[in-house]
Amino acid sequence: MIREIVRDNKKLMIKSVEATINDLYIIDDMIDTAKANNDICVGLAANQIGESIRIIVVEMGGFFVPLVNPKIISHSKTTYEVEEACLSHEGTKETTRYHSIEVEYCDRTFTKKKQNFSGFVAQVIQHEMDHCEGILI
After folding, report:
1. Span 17-55, pLDDT tens digits
2. CA torsion sign, 111 to 16 to 77 to 119?
3. Residue 134's pLDDT is what?
4. Alpha helices of the chain — where are they, by DSSP H?
5. Biggest CA-to-CA distance, the chain
6. Which phi and psi (to 5°) does residue 30 adopt?
7. Which residues are catalytic?
8. Residue 30 · residue 66 · CB < 8 Å
């Protein structure tokens, strides 16, 4: 089901709680909502559709891939400055991102995974994980 994008900063600033296996139903709504906005959407956090749980979806290879309870466990020493847009806000904001990250997460079956990401995908993951922390970009 396509959900409305949350634009209320007070709601977006609430730190998300760990997702449980009972929360996985939200993934389909997140993917539907991201696809409905895919002309401008490359990632989405659950709190952007009103669910304060740690689930993000990120476009990779033409598909929106869910990462449940993602945690960055290591990152490159090098960073870069970039301007980012967000579905929940108008305009752009400058921020600092790591060039590469290693992330632990669960997939949509709650199977634990560990994966390295770099470039634009790493940037999107960091942006969506900021949403989970209540950080506005």
Report:
1. 999 999 999 999 999 999 999 889 999 999 999 999 999
2. positive
3. 96
4. 9-12, 26-36, 119-132
5. 40
6. -65, -45
7. 128
8. yes
- Asked whether the CA dihedral 111, 1, 132, 91 is positive or negative, the reply is positive
Q: Which of 130, 128, 137 is nearest to 57 (CA)?
A: 128
What are 58-93's pLDDT values in tens digits? 999 999 999 999 999 999 999 999 999 999 999 999
Q: What is the pTM of this model?
A: 0.96
Return contacts of 93-98, CB within 8 angstroms, 24+ apart.
Answer: 93/137, 95/127, 95/137, 97/122, 97/123, 97/126, 97/127, 98/72, 98/122, 98/126
Q: What is the pLDDT of residue 137?
A: 80
Q: Output phi, psi for 27, to 5 deg.
A: -55, -45
Residues in the chain: 137
Answer positive or negative: Cα dihedral of 74, 44, 54, 94: positive
Instruction: Let me know if 42 is exposed, middle or buried by CB neighbors in 10 A (0-12, 13-18, 19+).
Output: buried
pLDDT of amino acid 87: 94
- Compute CA 13 distance to the chain's CA centroid, rounded to the nearest angstrom: 14
